[in-house]
Amino acid sequence: MVTRRDVTFTLTGEGELAIRRGGRVLRGVPAALRKDEDVAALRARKDALAQQAARVRADLEAAMVAQDTFTDADLAGLGRHPVLAPMLGRLVWVCGERSAVRRADGGVVSASGEPVAAAGGPWRLAHPVDLLAEGTWVAWQQRLFADGQRQPFKQVFRELYVITAAEREAGPASHRYDGHQLQPRQALALLGRRGWLSSRESGDAARVFHSCDLVARVEFANGFLTPMEADLPTIGGVYFTRRGERLAQPLDSVPAVVFSEAMRDLDLLASVAHAGVVDPEATASTTQMRAALIRETARLMKLTNVDFAGDHVLIEGALGEYSLHLGSGTVHRRRGGAICIVPVGSQHRGRLFLPFADDDPKTAEIVSKAILLARDHEISDPAILEQLRS
């Protein structure tokens, strides 16, 4: 902590810098203090801690996907790390065959907040696959909102993908994303960030899941890129092989976490790098996550005029009834036309609570629109009011 004049600078272990003058929070460093040596050193330290925290978050997320296990001694050692320690208490864990729990304040609590007997490990980070299987997924989502807990990465509100009956019958490849054309540059960048390697020779892309010795592979019609790059790559089948082999394994033999994570990557690819408009069907799990966020926000704010139908939020406002699409954020007035509500970049960041650290402006936009329309009698923007009253 550094105090200059009447301004106090406080740096957290995760690289967040709070600036206060008296009891008021400031948005930035006052101009008169920007060249102060101690303040400059604190800001440099902030940047270094933020980078370290980002690496730690990525490592924790990778540990959840790999289903890595930790002993009590492991967690005790990690708990002494100033950056890692605060993150561990905001995550949900599974201990052996026990139900999902959270380690907090030296104890262990369930989704209801009740203390439970501590076990001796091994511990692993819970995946939505675990929470769905034990029937506590919604309870944990409610707990995060009730406690105002922001997880270091998207865990409890993570998108989940399960094998469908049609995929089981048609296997060994999944064809749920067949026909989606992609923007090549965006696709390559997204694949690279998610750990996929693309090959011009084989015309596919692959991600290795080392923990179970499996490789997820996605084929592209006519290869990923043509020699002249004239034709856009088109997603084909998604299948899984043993490492070093090309024989597709039955989908039922693929661990549920591996299947879900591979499909989550493909959903992101089909949505973000899509050559045309975003296909709402390609973001089914994302819309479910957004519905859960809106449901919990409405519950905590005691909004009783919000309901759901498929990929839409149905809102009965004082000035009308609205339909909000969970994929695109498009708003329609029921028995009327579209309503244009233009989001202002970053206006809700820091004010709208999302229970995970991922930068997800589209989700923040959609949740904020739902709240806005549920309380349409409080809207003061003349451009919006003109549309609602016309």
Give a verbal description of the structure.
There is one protein chain. The protein has 390 residues and is α+β, with helices and mostly antiparallel strands. It folds into four domains: 2-53, no CATH class; 67-147, no CATH class; 165-276, TATA-Binding Protein (2-Layer Sandwich), CATH 3.30.310; 283-389. Helix content is 34%, strand content 19%. It has eleven helices and 17 strands. It has helices spanning 37-66, 72-78, 85-88, 128-134, 137-147, 165-170, 184-193, 256-272, 284-300, 361-374, 382-389, and strands at residues 2-4, 7-11, 17-21, 24-25, 92-95, 100-104, 107-109, 123-125, 197-199, 204-209, 214-221, 234-242, 306-309, 312-316, 321-325, 331-333, 338-339. The strands form four sheets. The protein has a five-stranded antiparallel beta sheet. Strands 1-2-3-4 form a four-stranded antiparallel beta sheet, with helices on one face. The protein is globular. 28% of the residues are buried. Residues 277-282 and 345-350 have low confidence and may be disordered.
What is the topological layout?
Elements: E1 2-4, E2 7-11, E3 17-21, E4 24-25, H1 37-66, H2 72-78, H3 85-88, E5 92-95, E6 100-104, E7 107-109, E8 123-125, H4 128-134, H5 137-147, H6 165-170, H7 184-193, E9 197-199, E10 204-209, E11 214-221, E12 234-242, H8 256-272, H9 284-300, E13 306-309, E14 312-316, E15 321-325, E16 331-333, E17 338-339, H10 361-374, H11 382-389
Antiparallel strand pairs: 1-2, 2-3, 3-4, 5-6, 5-8, 6-7, 9-10, 10-11, 11-12, 13-14, 14-15, 15-16, 16-17
Helix pairs in contact: 5-9, 7-8, 9-10
